[in-house]
Amino acid sequence: MRVSDNEPPISVRLPADVNRPDRVVGGMTWRQLVIAAVTGLLIYGAWSALATVVPPLVFAVCALPVAAAGFLLAVARRDGQDLDRWLAVALRFRRQPHRLVPADGGEVVAAPAWVATTAGRPEVPAPLRLPAKAIRTDGLVDLGADGTAGLITATPVPFGLRSTAEQNALIGRYGAWLNSLDGPTQILVRSHRIDLAALADRVAEGAPALPHPALEAAAVSHAEFLDALTIDRQLLARHITVTVRDKRGPTVTARRTAAAARGLTGCEVRATITDPAAVLAACLTPENGAP
User: Fold this and answer.
1) Is residue 179 part of a domain?
2) In a domain, 24, yes or no
3) Do 87 and 26 share a structural domain?
4) Residue 246: domain span
5) Helical H runs in 22-122?
6) Which of 89, 125, 169, 190 could be stapled to 99 by a disulfide with Cβ–Cβ 3.0 to 4.6 Å?
7) Which residue has the higher pLDDT, 23 or 202?
8) What predicted TM-score, i.e. pTM, was given to this entire model?
9) DSSP, residue by residue, 176-210
10) Whether the Cβ atoms of residue 125 and residue 108 lie closer than 8 Å to each other
11) Cβ contact 219:207 at 8 Å
């Protein structure tokens, strides 16, 4: 065993939320302080206006729910987001149309007057506006005002099968790749179930045509192994896509995409920049995982 294999693993303490804002006073952020200050000013203003006509005890009872609501709005979280931002997103979602359909020209033609249901005329759906406008000939996705995006198909790395020294080296390379990014980059990992029954059937059907009985026996054994895997285990196929987006033009996006692919290659990842045909095929069959 090499001496480097006895190297201790890299251990770094990371916060649960790497995007957590800085704490300013009393463990509260600027946003929380603003919400608390606005709540306090509202209560103080109401007391200044009603102090001569409302008893203090009655005002305290009425102001307590307002103070509690402001406190919860400042410190509570829901689904990993601050409560005020979560409520803003929920309100925006409720106000947006929920029935969207593709429409040429950005307008949905209303149904004829004679079309009606038992509950009256149905509501006209809103046009579906996708962020992608077109797939360019160089493989980039045109996002309109948001620029262009390049797609990279990447393969996973069997990290758990490496020695400690190799794991440390991979972590260092991946960290260097992350530090080299100078623009928006997204890593998408998709998993879906796969069925090896069809592959096992093909192997079993082709076994008699093999030139040697030993090969035929091996093929039959392999087909039985695939059938056992399908029955006993939940097999998953993973697709990793790295998206590089930039607003500075297609040339900059293509250069950044190529640089990102080269950096991933240094992390022992097989990175391939998708061409227009591959991008279109992925859009039409997003779960194509045939073995």
Assistant:
1) yes
2) yes
3) yes
4) 134-194+235-284
5) 30-50, 56-75, 83-95
6) 125
7) 202
8) 0.64
9) HHHHH--S-EEEEEEEEE---HHHHHHHHHHGGGS
10) yes
11) yes
